[in-house]
Design brief:
Blueprint: H1 10-35, H2 50-54, E1 72-73, E2 84-88, E3 123-127, E4 130-131, H3 137-143, E5 148-153, H4 155-169, E6 177-181, E7 185-190, E8 195-201, E9 207-208, E10 222-224, H5 229-232, E11 240-243, E12 255-258, E13 270-272, H6 274-292, E14 299-303, H7 342-353, E15 360-362, H8 365-369, E16 375-377, H9 386-391, H10 393-396, E17 398-402, H11 407-418
Helix pairs in contact: 4-11, 6-7
């Protein structure tokens, strides 16, 4: 007995094929919603290293050839820079190394100071919904033509300044650039552009008895909460100002806070809770900006706090010693450690929110929170041998400052996009 072969009309066949294709696309896009992976993203394999060995999932990789129809061109008014992930991309080398940039301080030159692993150099911050443009030294220098750019703050802000200088200096002929440095004020000149990239030391923004020279015993520091003029006179006439102030406030005890003048002696201070002294001081700074700076002439930025990673339990490494020997970022979305104080961040939000000046806040905190691998750790140089530091980790591991090249380069990439 022969089985009859059923032949469907052409129109029915077309409908079936179309339905099957549509179902396939719907299934794929549903899978994409669960996994975050799109069939429209094309990715190339990076070099073999510790990062690629650990993360076989290609969603952690990135190349210039990625096509993502869901992400838009960067718009400062639309894009949230804190929403994103670190992606590994070994195909793009940093714009400088601690050997090629002659201005880099020894204490942040981690490779020169014996750091062996290199994966930390190749993590790039990728926004969820926007395309963050790469740092283009030539374009940045053109934006700075005829202008003064000044970073103001502490040693973390100093590292961002050094990073910025190192990212552009190779594009400037050696005879067309110069550097003059002091403890409190340093200036890099790009002569052909008639531009300067400067750093001014003011870790509390307001005046203190520890500005210069530094008082290393934090219990003896006194913050002059209502005086900013001594520092601010050096900010007048600058075209672009970038401020930060956080780490120096977090000393673990109350802040000795003074009103009036140091000329009248250092007696009469009050010991205030950190957030109270910080609020008063930041308000003093904000009042100066509102009353003195012309928004038609000067742009002002404020960087949120740079996280410290001094408690390894924050990222579930119960046997770790701070950030020592960490070689990978935290990949848990929204990770927030004890080294970033939300109360202090709210103080910034409250003060800036009441300012008349159209200041731009750059939120570097969340993206930096993930980078437990980016700190200098024991690779800080100096007279103490590396092996001696490793033998006394609790004394020598530095989880406040960042290696260069490294995380501050990403801050400057974002800053350049705002420019």
């Amino acid at each position: 007995m022969k089985l009859l072969k059923c032949k469907f009309p052409l129109s029915v066949t077309a409908i079936l094929i179309t339905s099957m294709a549509l179902a396939s696309v719907i299934f794929t896009e549903n899978l994409r919603a669960l996994t975050g992976t799109s069939i429209f993203k094309l990715k190339a394999c990076p070099k073999e290293n510790a990062a690629s060995a650990l993360y076989k999932d290609t969603s952690f990789w990135s190349t210039d050839d990625i096509i993502d129809e869901d992400r838009i061109e960067f718009d400062p008014n639309e894009c949230r820079i804190m929403d994103g992930e670190w992606v590994f991309n070994s195909s793009v080398e940093p714009l400088y190394t601690d050997e090629t940039c002659p201005y880099l301080d020894r204490d942040v030159a981690c490779q020169r100071n014996g750091r062996i692993d290199r994966d930390y150099l190749y993590w790039q911050w990728q926004l969820d919904d926007c395309i963050l443009p790469r740092f283009d030294p030539e374009k940045v220098l053109e934006k700075l033509r005829g202008k003064r750019l000044m970073f103001v703050g502490d040693s973390v802000q100093k590292a961002q300044w050094l990073s910025f200088v190192c990212m552009v200096q190779s594009r400037i002929p050696e005879d067309q650039r110069s550097m003059h440095r002091t403890h409190t004020f340093s200036v890099f000149q790009a002569k052909g552009y008639n531009a300067s990239i400067e750093f001014y030391w003011a870790p509390h923004l307001v005046e203190t008895n520890s500005d210069d020279p530094i008082i290393y015993d934090t219990k003896k520091r006194i913050v002059h909460v209502d005086s900013v003029s001594k520092h601010a006179k050096n900010w007048v006439g600058v075209d672009i100002l970038v401020f930060n102030s956080y780490v120096w406030w977090m000393n673990g005890h109350k802040i000795k806070s003074l009103w009036g003048s140091f000329a009248n002696g250092e007696e009469g201070y009050e010991e205030l809770e950190t957030k109270v002294s910080y609020r008063i001081s930041l308000k003093t700074w904000a009042n100066w900006v509102d009353s003195t700076v012309n928004p038609k002439v000067t742009r002002v930025f404020f960087n949120t706090m740079s996280p410290t990673h001094t408690r390894s339990k924050d990222w579930n490494n119960t046997k770790g010693i701070r950030c020592y020997n960490e070689t990978m970022p935290v990949m848990k979305k929204g990770h927030w450690g004890s080294g970033s104080n939300r109360t202090m961040m709210k103080v910034v939000s409250d003060i800036v929110g009441r300012m008349k000046f159209p200041l731009t806040v750059i939120n570097i905190t969340q993206l930096s929170e993930y980078r437990i691998d980016g700190h200098v750790s024991v690779h800080t140089g100096g007279k103490i041998p590396l092996e001696e530091k490793k033998a006394n980790l609790r004394q020598f591991v530095d989880c406040i400052h960042w290696c260069l090249p490294g995380v501050p380069d990403a801050w400057n990439q974002i800053f350049a996009a705002y420019l």
